[in-house]
Amino acid sequence: MDNDDGFDYLFKIVLVGDMGVGKTCVVQRFRSGNFVDRQGTTIGVDFTMKTLNVDGKRVKLQIWDTGGQERFRTITQSYYRSANGIVLCYDITCKQSFGSLQRWIDDVSKFAAPNVVKLLIGTKCDLEDQRSIETEEAEMLQRANGRIFFKRKPNPNWISGMFAMLETSAKNDINVDNAFLELATLLKRQYDQGVLEQGATGTFQLGSGGTTSINSPWQRCCQYT
Amino acid sequence: MTYSSIPAINLPMHSSFSEPNSPLKEVLGEKWQTASCSDLGDNYVKPGPLAKAKFNALRNKREAIDRFLKKHKKEDLSLYIDELRDFAISSGGLVDDEFRAAIWPVLAANLVQNDDLDDVSSSYDSDFESAQSDFDEESPIFEELTELTLDELKGHKEWNQVELDVHRTLSRFPPNISDTHRDVLQTELIPLIVRVLSVNPRFNYYQGFHDICLTVLLVCGEKDALPVCSNLAKNGAFNNYLLKTLEKSVVRELDLLYVILSRVEPTLEKVMRSVELGTMFGLSWPLTWFSHSLKQYQQIVRFFDVFLASSPLLPIYVSSAVVVYRRASILSCEREMPFLHRLLTEMPSELPIDAIIKDAVYLSKLMPPCLLKTNYMNEYRKIVAKPHRPTVKTIPRYALQFMFVAGTVGAAASFFFFKQIHPL
Predict the structure, then answer these.
(1) What sections of the protein cross the membrane (chain B) (predicted)?
(2) Hey, which residues does A60 pair with through a beta bridge?
C-alpha cells in the first residue's frame, strides 16, 4: 500500500474491455513493474493507485480494474460515473475483443460523464505473429470516436472522446507506463485550464471560456512511442 | 496415547492434495498424509500448552471421524447426515482431505435448503429468469452427464470461456502439486465444469464458478466431483447465481451484510455506508465461497466443509464475521471508498477461520435468514432513510486540493490585477 499522501491532482481511471484481454496484467505492470503470466480472473472490480510526475506535479491515479465477463458488466457500470478517464482495452490477437469495443464505447457514453477522456489500448503487442487487428484498423476506430471538442462545456478545447490509441505489452513492458502517463498528462492539462479559467471565483468549476490551446503541448507526449 | 496407536484409514480414497508442510507429517510418518488445520501445523512448531491442547483436540476429532466412517462403512452415510454436518461445522472441520473426499459427496447430496420458503429474490419481480422452484424435471441425471462425449461438451456455448478461465487458475493450486499433475487436473476441470453447466440449459456460467469446481476436484477427484458440483449447482446457493442476474441474486444477498452489521456493529456499518462503500469488495466471497480471495488451501477447504453443511446463506454471515474481524483495520483506514474497498478486498493471509465460523454460525442463529430478509431488512431501510448526520465532518481530499489550487490562482490573479491598476 502506498501511503504517499501528497499529491497535486487526483484522477479516477477505469479500465474496461472484454475478459482475458489483459486488463489486470496492464494494471499490475504499471503499478509494480511485474508481469504475472496467467493472471487469475477479476471478479467484480479491483482497485489500485499510483502517483506520477507530470510537468513537475504529482498526479495520483486511482485505477479501477473491472472484471470483463459479460455477467459483471452491469455491476461494474456504476464505477464509470465518477471516472475522469476510461481506458478501453482490446487484445490485438483477438478479433472478438476488438469487435466488442463498440459496445464498451456505448456503455461508457451511457454511464460515464460526457466529458470523460478515453484512451484506446491494444494489449499483447508482443504477440506480433498472432496479430489479427492491424494498427491502422484500431487507429481508424480511435479517430472515428476521437477528439470531440466541446464548444461550450467544460471549455472549448476540452478533448473528450478517444484521444489516442496505443499498442502495449505488459509482458515486454511496452507502452504501459506511457499509456497512463499520456492519460494523466491530458487530464492534468485540461483540469489546469478549467481551474485557471474559473480560478478567480475561488471554487473549482470547469470553465466555459478561454482560448489556450491544448493541442500543442499534447503532441509532445505522443512522441514517447 | 502414542501416535502409532492411531489406526490407518482404510477407506478407498485417492491421496490428498493438502499441503503436508507442517511437521506433523514427519512426526506421524505415513499414517496421516495431511494436516489440514493450518492452526495446528503452525503452532505445533513451538510447543506450548495451548498448542498441545489444540493438537489433542484435533487429533481426537480426527480419530472420532475415522471411527465413525469405519463403523458405518457399509451403510448409507446419508442416514447420519446430522452427525456429518456436526463434524463439518465444529472446530477443525473435517480435518483431512481423505475424510472430505468421503463426506463432501454425502453433504452435497443432502444440502440444507433455505429455512424459509422464499429466497432473497423471490419477493422481487423475477421476470428475467424464473426462480429455482420451477426447476425443470427433465434435467439430466448424473449418468447422462457422464455420458456426454468430449465433442458434445466442446459444442457447449460456454466451453471456450471455461477453457480460458481454467488456464488462468495457476495460483489456485496448492504448491505441493507438480506441474504435470496440475496440467492433468486442469484438463479434467474443463469438461467437469461444462458437464455441470449442462445440468440445466438455462445456467449462465459466471467467472468464479470455476473456482468452486476446482476446489471440489482437488478434494474429491474427477469421478466424485461431478455429482458434488451438480448438486451445488442445482440445489445450493449457486443455483440462483447461475440462473439469475448477479444483481438479482448475489448482490441482493450481499445487501444483507449491511443489515447484519447494523445490528452487531453499528459503528462499522455507519462508516461503510458513509463512504458509499457498497458490497463490491465482497462480491467474490459468496460467488466462490471465498476460494477466490483466501490464499491458503487449508482455509478454503475448511470453509467449504461448513458451507456444504449449512444454510445457503451462511457465506453472507461469514462475510459479516470477516468484516467484523477486521474492525480495527476498517476504523483506522482512511474514510474513503477506494481505500476501504482495497482493504477489504485483500484478505489477510492469517485468519482465525474457526473463530470466524463460530461467529458466523452464532450470527445466523441470532438473526436467521427469514428474519433478516423481512423485519430486519425493513428496519434497516428505515435507518438508512433517516438523514445521516456524520459525527465528524469530513471534507473530501480533492475538494481541499482544488480549493487550494483555485484559491492560490485567484489570489495571484487579483494580485496581478491590482498591481496593474496601482503600480507600486
Answers:
(1) 398-418
(2) A10, A51
**Residue A202: which of B245, B247, B410 has the nearest Cβ?**
B410
- Domain count for chain A, please give it: 1
Task: Check if A6 contacts B (Cβ < 8 Å).
Answer: no
Per CB-CB distance under 8 Å, the chain B contacts of A48 are 342
What range does the domain containing A131 cover? Answer: 9-193
The mean pLDDT of A180-202, rounded to a whole number, is: 73
Q: Tell me: pLDDT of B404 over 50.
A: yes
What does CATH list as the number for B250-385? 1.10.472.80
Using the beta-carbon criterion (under 8 Å), do B168 and A1 form an inter-chain contact?
no
Q: Find the CB nearest B283 among A43, A48, A201.
A: A43
Residues forming CATH 1.10.472.80 domain(s) in chain B: 250-385
Segment A151-170 mean pLDDT: 75
Mean pLDDT of B299-323: 97
Question: What is the helix (H) or strand (E) element at residue B104, kind and residue range?
Answer: helix B97-109
Cell for B83? 452427525
Res B400: pLDDT: 59
Contact residues, A window 92-111, toward B, CB-based 8 Å cutoff: none
Q: Which long-range contacts (CB under 8 A, 24 or more apart) does B138-147 make?
A: B139/B199, B139/B200, B139/B234, B140/B198, B140/B199, B142/B226, B142/B227, B142/B230, B145/B195, B145/B196, B145/B198, B145/B199, B145/B226, B145/B230, B146/B195, B146/B226
- Burial per residue of B158-181, b for 16 or more beta-carbon CB atoms within 10 angstroms, e otherwise: bbebbbebbebbeebbbeeeeeee
Q: Which grid cell sits at A10? A: 487526483
Give the residue with greater pLDDT, B132 vs B241. B241
Separation between Cα atoms, residue B59 and residue A23, nearest integer Å: 46
Chain B residue numbers with beta carbons less than 8 Å from the beta carbon of A14 are: none
Fold that domain B76-243 belongs to in CATH: Helicase, Ruva Protein; domain 3 (1.10.8)
Report the CATH number at residue A163.
Answer: 3.40.50.300
Interface contact A7-B165, CB threshold 8 A: no
Interface with chain A: mutation pick from B248, B280, B294, B346, highest number of A CBs within 10 Å: B280
- pLDDT at residue B421 tops 70: no
Task: Give me the pLDDT at residue A193, please.
Answer: 81
Instruction: Give tens-digit pLDDT for A14-27.
Output: 999 999 999 999 99
What confidence tier does B423 reach under pLDDT thresholds 50, 70, 90? low
Question: Is B172 in Cβ contact with A8 (below 8 Å)?
Answer: no
Q: Is residue A221 part of a domain?
A: no
A211 falls within a domain? no
- Determine contact: A1 vs chain B, CB below 8 A: yes
Quick check: A43 and B341 CB within 8 A?
A: no
Residue A200 and residue B399: Cβ atoms within 8 Å?
A: no
> B338 to chain A, minimum CA–CA distance in Å?
7
Q: CB distance B409–A195 less than 8 Å?
A: yes
Contacts of B278 in chain A (CB under 8 A): 78
User: Residues of CATH 1.10.8.1310 domain(s) within chain B?
Assistant: 76-243
Query: Is the pLDDT higher at B276 or at A207?
Result: B276
